[in-house]
Design brief:
The protein has helices spanning about 20-30, 70-75, 95-100, 120-130, 145-155, 170-175, 190-200, 215-220, 230-240; strands spanning about 5-10, 35-40, 45-50, 105-110, 140, 160-165, 180-185, 205-210, 225-230. The protein is of the alpha/beta class. It has an eight-stranded parallel barrel with strand order 1-2-4-5-6-7-8-9, surrounded by six helices. The structure holds SN-glycerol-3-phosphate (G3P) and calcium ion. This is Glycerophosphoryl diester phosphodiesterase.
Length: about 240
């Protein structure tokens, strides 16, 4: 089985992260899938954005969950990477799913939160997913095990992934206890021992965020299920050569 090429926040190495432009460019570059981050807006809509605040990526300021979708989408994303591209705005999850519907792309939705869960984000995401016929092509991931537990409870057929900063037998055991389908291993924890351990629990493995050519080659050789990268074009070239 070929290792899947998953574009981290879209083709974020060259286009503004988590925008419809970055997703389109990842698709054009031949990615097998897209990883994106989801948070809740003030008016209870799932929006695609990585940070807790909009400060790093827009000219505005404030927390995502203290702004409505209308307010969020009135502030353009600043784009230091490609000045010749159309102005981008923070997309909603619904806008993304409408775009991806009908395309042969896997989507990894990461649920973002701090220790406390944001109000009903997992329920909101599950309810949006039910409106689209995409369940087969989705993975819901989170560092927060409560999200994984609740998603599996509300929609047991959805595939889930526990994100791990470090890999121990205890963390793999937790993923197994949660009935997660995958662990998502940080690049530094990717080694044959951890892969063997996870496989021993019947877990699938994706790794993040792998960008350098040598690291991509190594991860590709190790035979994980998927590699999450800012540069899907690099991985595509490596896979064509190997
Ligand atoms: O899903 C893997 C990776 O995206 C997790 O870290 O901070 O890039 O969302 P971050
Ligand atoms: Ca992410």
């Amino acid at each position: 089985m070929r290792t899947l090429n998953l574009a981290h926040r879209g083709f974020s190495g060259r286009y503004p992260e988590n925008t419809l432009l970055a997703f389109e460019k990842a698709y054009e570059a031949g990615a097998d899938g897209i990883e994106l981050d989801v948070r809740m807006s003030k008016d209870g809509q799932a929006v695609i954005f990585h940070d807790e605040t909009i400060d790093r990526l827009t000219s505005g300021t404030g927390k995502v969950n203290e702004l409505t979708v209308k307010e969020l989408q009135a502030i353009p994303i600043t784009n230091p990477l490609q000045s010749d591209q159309k102005q981008q705005y923070i997309p909603t999850l619904k806008e993304y799913l409408s775009w991806v519907q009908g395309k042969a792309l896997l989507t990894n939705i990461e649920l973002k939160s701090k220790d406390e869960l944001e109000d009903g984000l997992e329920m909101q995401v599950v309810s949006i997913i039910r409106q689209f016929d995409l369940e087969e092509n989705l993975i819901i991931s989170s560092f927060n095990s409560k999200y994984i537990q609740r998603v599996k409870h509300f929609m047991p057929s959805l595939k889930t992934a526990l994100l791990l900063h470090s890999c121990t037998e205890k963390s793999i055991q937790l993923a197994d206890d949660l009935n997660a389908d995958y662990i998502h291993l940080k690049k530094g924890s990717l080694n044959p021992r951890n892969i063997l351990m996870a496989k021993g629990f019947g877990l699938l493995i994706n790794t993040w965020t792998v960008n350098e050519v040598d690291d991509l080659k190594t991860a590709n050789r190790l035979g994980v299920n998927g590699i999450i990268t800012d540069y899907p074009d690099r991985l595509k070239t490596i896979q064509a050569d190997q």
